[in-house]
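Posting this for the archive.
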Amino acid sequence: MSVKNESCSSCNEKDNCNGEECTTLRLAPNDATEVKNMVAVMSGKGGVGKSSISALLAVNLARRGLKVGVLDADITGPSIPKMFNLKEQPHSDGSFMYPLETPTGIRVISMNLLLPSEDQPVIWRGPVISGAVKQFWTDVAWGKLDYLVIDMPPGTGDVPLTVMQSLPLTGFIIVTSPQDLASVIVKKALNMANHMNVPILGMVENYSYLKCPDCGTDIKLFGEGSGSRLARETGIPLLEKLPVDPQLAALCDKGQIESYAPELFSSFPALKQ
């Protein structure tokens, strides 16, 4: 099966390429960017908490003293700025755009930071959205980062394909929820990453349980976790099983996700330092 799209039409190797291991479309960093590891957070479906997982991963990496950025690739449904209470417009000097920084020094770029108001819709077709994601890599002065976390939109369409083909990814984290329905769709994202030869670094099961405030019992709101089963079937490490946590929801709404106390992702694989 070929994964070629319209971006392949300008490639000199298009007649000799099956699209599976294409590196000619890979975009080099600009002169103001040096990123050691680029990790995308992906799922085959929406509503499983990719943005909160992306933000929590960035927060926990920053707590270890690492330099971290977040590229919000969910162009039509961005929520990263809200979680970090970022509202200003990024500065541009004519050559580069500069990301905003959170109180703990996490650098962030998102489409919502470029709009006149946060509730204005982005009504663009796929190629334009993909172009914006590329520009968030090529036109932004990220500086020196240990990790750039990419918050992906749901599905396996234009943006995931653009990220896999055009950005120098270290690997993916796959997000799922306990429902079998979610795991079936998440397998599509797993298969896409495998098809594109992008490493999968681990899996996170979100909404795994709700801890009863009275007795402390773990209530399985969405059934027994499919994350553990997927991990066994695929051999992908299960990095976290995160609960439904009202405190996290409240902190995200207030733009204070950096105050979320639990230490997470201790088993996140050691990458290039």
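The first strand starts at residue 33 and ends at 42. Residues 28-259 form a domain with the Rossmann fold fold (CATH 3.40.50.300).
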